[in-house]
Design a protein that fits this description.
With 117 residues, the chain is mainly alpha-helical. It is built from five helices and no strands.
Length: 117
């Protein structure tokens, strides 16, 4: 003998599946209008220029962190070593060069941390 509540539940699941196939999404029995399709929301729905800016800021902060941690002479030595290797490492070394913004921020962070450079 089958439970009547279970049968009602199965019938409801079947109606919801039929509504989804017909394009009414998650309409319930007490709603009368069809649901409008919605675009999915993404956590980082940024325009291209803003995404590039975030990436550039992130790379700069990584360079600053490395530069403050190991110091300018060791940083320059590692860049010189990477420039003499594979094309991928040469490209990475070009990106990791100390630009004016990186140097300025690194000097400020070093001063804040009390590391005289």
């Amino acid at each position: 003998m089958q439970d009547p509540q279970y049968r009602d539940f199965q019938n409801r699941l079947q109606r919801v599946a039929e509504m989804q196939r017909s394009g009414r999404a998650f309409e319930t029995a007490d709603t009368s209008r069809m649901a409008a399709p919605r675009r999915p929301r993404h956590a980082l729905n940024l325009p291209l220029w803003r995404s590039l800016g975030v990436m550039a800021a992130t790379v700069t902060l990584v360079k600053v962190g490395i530069l403050v941690q190991i110091g300018a002479p060791a940083y320059a030595e590692r860049l010189a070593l990477a420039e003499s290797r594979t094309p991928v490492e040469r490209a990475a070394a070009a990106v990791m060069q100390i630009d004016p913004a990186t140097g300025w921020v690194a000097r400020g962070v070093s001063a804040l941390l009390g590391r005289g450079r």
